[in-house]
Amino acid sequence: MKRLAILVSGRGSNFEAIARNIREDKLDAEIAAVVANNPEAKALDTARSLGLNAISLPSKGIDSDTYAAQVRDALAPLHIDLICLAGFMRRVGQPLLDAYPQRILNIHPSLLPSFPGLHVQQQALDYGVKWSGCTVHFVDAGVDSGPIVAQAAVPIVEGDTADTLAARILVEEHKIFSEAIAVVLGGKYRIEGRRVVRLTQ
Asked: What distances in angstroms separate CA 164 from CA 63, 110, 125, 161, 167, one per listed residue?
């Protein structure tokens, strides 16, 4: 069975959705480790309550590449097939990218390439767009710039705030992240430049 490592920084609702889909046999994988760069992350408690391998690896005061090497070393004995960033609020350093080429996925709460980075729901509202959504993409050295595996669109409605929009987007995140993980683990795709092409055969 394919083995996942989930990297988190906070509550880990996307991690919980992945774990639920695995328990309900909607995703054929197992979670080999949940790694948090924030020792106070609620996701660590959730992982422990589910009997999962919860690893607190604080990143405060550590540069991205040094921290990436620490994560790489912690995951090395676990035979990880795919790393999933589920609300992981750190740039992924080069040592981890080198160790897991095209094997790191991130979920981002906008329709990339629009609104990368932080505070994306407020960015969308300030810009006046009519649609937002979420994107699952491969992680590269840029900021939310890797090839896109899956997207879901969410309409912006009159009276939306950053919080109400984020809540509706999160519902779609919980759906498409596991779907994208299944595609990547199944290997039925190829990457052409920035495009992820799903294969039917």
From this structure: 34, 14, 11, 5, 5
Structure tokens at 51: 């009997």
* Two structure tokens written together for 55: 């690893």
Q: How high is the pLDDT of residue 201? A: 62
Catalytic choice (79, 108, 119, 137): 108
Give the model confidence (pLDDT) of 77-103 as tens digits.
Answer: 999 999 999 999 999 999 999 999 999
Known catalytic membership, residue 108: yes
How far apart CA 118 and CA 144 sit, in angstroms, is 10
Amino acid symbol at 27: L
Judge if pTM exceeds 0.85.
Answer: yes
The domains found in the chain, sorted by start residue, are 1-101 (3.40.50.170), 108-201 (3.40.50.170)
